[in-house]
Amino acid sequence: MGEYCSRLCALEGFAGHGEQANIRVRRFGGRDVPYAGQAVPSELTKA
Predict the structure, then answer these.
(1) C-beta contacts of 1-4 below 8 A and 24+ residues apart
(2) Residue 31: count of CB within 10 angstroms of its CB
(3) Domain coordinates of the chain in residue numbers?
(4) Chain centroid to CA 15: how far?
(5) By CB distance 3.0 to 4.6 Å, which of 5, 28, 35, 43 could disulfide with 21?
(6) What is the pLDDT of residues 25-38, one digit of tens each?
(7) Distance of CA 39 to CAs 15, 24, 29, 42, Å?
(8) Cα separation of 36 and 20, whole Å?
(9) How far apart are alpha carbons 30 and 47 in whole angstroms?
(10) Chain centroid offset of residue 30 CA
C-alpha cells in the first residue's frame, strides 16, 4: 500500500504525503527509498 501511495503522491505533486508513505515503505518494507522520491514496485506488488 505504501508503494502505491508513494507513486501516486509523486504523480500528484504531494511531496509531504509521499514522504510519509516512503517512511512506511522504509520501516515496514525494509527498502531504501530516496528522500522525496518514489518507491519502485517490488516483484511482489507488480500487477
Answers:
(1) 2/28, 2/29, 2/39, 3/29, 3/39, 3/40, 3/41, 3/42, 3/45, 4/45
(2) 14
(3) 1-38
(4) 11
(5) 5
(6) 999 989 999 888 88
(7) 13, 11, 10, 9
(8) 9
(9) 21
(10) 12
Q: If pLDDT is split at 50, 70 and 90, which confidence band does 44 have?
A: confident
Phi, psi of 16 (to 5 degrees): -65, -45
Q: Hey, what's the cell of 29?
A: 518494507
Give one word for 14, left, alpha or beta, with left for phi > 0 and alpha for psi -120 to 50: beta
Going by C-alpha positions, the residue among 47, 44, 23 that lies closest to residue 35 is 23
Q: Which residue has the cell 517512511?
A: 23
**Residue in the structure block whose three cell numbers are 511482489:** 44
